[in-house]
Amino acid sequence: MRTFYSTLFVLLLTACNAVNDNRSKNNSAEKIAGNSGSDSVVFTADNISMERKNVNTRPVKTYTETIQSFETTDEFKVSLYETKLTFKYLMKISYKNIDIQDTLKVHNFGFEPSVEIVKGESTRPSCIVGFFDKENKFRESKLVLFDKNKLKVRVLKHYAVATYQHIQ
After folding, report:
1. Are residues 72 and 134 in the same domain?
2. Of 77, 104, 126, 158, which is least packed with CB atoms within 10 Å of its CB?
3. Would you say the C-alpha torsion 73, 74, 76, 81 has a positive or negative sign?
4. Are residues 80 and 20 in the same domain?
5. How far is Cα 27 from Cα 111, in angstroms, rounded to an integer?
6. Is residue 160 part of a domain?
7. What are phi and psi of 28, to 5 degrees?
8. 98, part of any domain
C-alpha cells in the first residue's frame, strides 16, 4: 500500500510540474504576441502589403534587342510593369508588329520584390525574365522568344514558398 501512495505522489508531482511548464510557456508567448488570453500568430518577418498604394506606370525593367535582316531592322522588346498587386507584374512583349502580354508572379520573401530581365542563351531573339530571392540570387522564371514566326513565352521553373509553424 505504501508503494501505491508513493507512486501516486510522484505521478501527481510530475503532472503539476508539466502543467506549470505549459502555463509559463503560454504566458511568455502571450507577452510576445502582445495580448493575453486569446490565440494569436506571431510573424517575425516584415509584412508586405499585397496591394501597391502607388502603381508606377513606367516600365520597371526593359530588355531590347535589335535584329537586322536583309530587308528590315526589327526590335525585340520585353518590358515589366507594376500592377495593383505587389507580387504580380505585367509583361508586354513586342516584335515584328506582334504584341502580346503575359504576367510574372513573384513570391513574398518578406521584402519588396526585385525583378530582372537577362539575355537568353540559345535562340535569337530571346530573354529570360525572373526575380531575385532572399539571398539575392537570380531565379529564372520565364523564357520569351520568337520561334517559327510566333512570339512564345515558356515557363522555365516553378517556385514555391512555405511557412512552417511549430505546434506544441
Report:
1. yes
2. 158
3. positive
4. no
5. 31
6. no
7. -70, -35
8. yes
